[in-house]
Design goal:
alpha/beta, 7 strands
Length: 208
């Protein structure tokens, strides 16, 4: 039985099509207490999910539909990219593997800072797209935060490009913020907020 209950319980249990513990932790902290988020591993699903699209939205939809079509589970997936204005939107959809197929977070930061060396325009944005599939129907939600690429690493929290991303509405990089502070403004938190508002509105409709 799918672990997604919209009508029959006060707690909504939702499968997140990921095993990325960083993302899982961020989203669990961002959603209200009325939601329980489960990873693929927690559902005993061990599979490499394809990501073949050239857009964030396309990848999020592909991942969510893969789980739905192969396991019959309503779920959601996300894809996130860092888009740098001076690099024509790169690394974008390739953010996780910017420095190569088996690269680390540090490898990606090294490449990004190298590419940005000497460039005065440091404008960038983080973008997250969440795709939710329920009974074969797809709905997407987008979160964007604008900021700047710093010239060096700052902070030890977070993951990915967090040490070099300074949001416009703050004086600290994402890596200098606590998870609670980051979740008040981040791209992923904004997308999750839209997603949970959508679920709440559906729940309200079923009880009226």
């Amino acid at each position: 039985m799918p672990l997604f209950f919209l009508k029959y319980t006060a707690i909504m249990k939702i499968i997140f099509a990921t095993n990325n513990l960083h993302k899982l932790n961020e989203i669990r902290k961002a959603v209200p207490d009325s939601y329980e988020i489960y990873s693929l591993e927690e559902q005993a699903i061990q599979v490499e999910i394809p990501e073949t699209s050239d857009t964030l939205e396309g990848n999020a939809i592909e991942k969510a539909m893969f789980i739905y079509e192969n396991y019959g589970l309503n779920c959601f997936a996300d894809d996130t990219g860092l888009e740098v204005e001076a690099l024509a939107g790169a690394p974008g959809v390739y953010s996780a593997r910017y420095a190569g197929p088996a690269c680390s977070f540090e490898d990606n930061i090294v490449k990004l800072l190298s590419e940005m060396n000497g460039i005065s325009n440091r404008k960038a944005r983080f973008k997250t797209v969440i795709a939710f599939v329920e009974n074969g129907e797809i709905v997407t939600f987008e979160g964007i935060i604008n900021g700047q690429i710093t010239t060096d690493r700052r902070g030890k929290e977070g993951f990915g490009y967090d040490p070099v991303f300074l949001p416009d509405q703050g004086k600290e990089t994402f890596a200098e913020m606590s998870l609670e502070e980051k979740n008040r403004i981040s791209h992923r938190a904004l997308a999750v907020k839209k997603f949970t508002e959508y679920l709440s509105s559906k729940d309200k409709q079923t009880t009226e």
